[in-house]
Write a structure and sequence with these properties.
The protein has 201 residues and is mainly α. Among the domains are: 68 residues, no CATH class; 29 residues, no CATH class. 50% of the residues lie in helices and 5% in strands. A two-stranded antiparallel ribbon has the order 1-2. Helix 4 crosses helix 5. It is rod-shaped, with a radius of gyration of 42 Å. The N and C termini lie far apart (102 Å). It holds the Pfam family TIMELESS. InterPro entries: Timeless, Timeless_N. This is TIM protein.
Amino acid sequence: AGLGSPGVLRGPLTAPWPQDWEQRQEEDTLLIERILLLVRNVLHVPPDPTEEQGVDGDASVHDRVLWALHISGMDDLLKFLASAQAEQQWALHVLEIISLMFRDQSPEELAALGQGQAATEHGEDTRELETLRQRELAERRARALQRPSRHSRFGGSYVLQGLKAIGDRDVVFHKGLHNLKSYSHDLGKETRRVPRRRQAA
């Protein structure tokens, strides 16, 4: 965009940094000031909607300039200039550059930016979980309506031919067929308990 390659500007800016501000030449000071003014002037260019005919959600020219500054590391240098005690002479330039960086943003958007994306993702997840829960409840209700309201515990009665009960009748078996293997005449009868003193040793 407007800054082509901000790394070209970052190089001359980083060269004078190791020197103390007292040892810096006047040319170095002028070079730093000119670079900061150039960055400020590039960021000061107002947006032109007729020229920027991008699709919705596409990055504007201003956003691309900011991204180029970030990739080159210029934003780290600006943070260093803003926080270094010995570089207070550039404070107003840095403040102006930072205010131009956030020109298109409202304070509410910036305040909610860190948690905004997480909140939207959380909201989408919550909505998705809620729709899944509603669908599961609807399926459960449909299944409850399809089956009879009371479960019959009656598993059926079977006549076991070949086994005689009392009085020459066939045995009637009231359990499921899978329990037939464990059938005995004592099934369902309470076992008589023998006191311990009468139990066999």
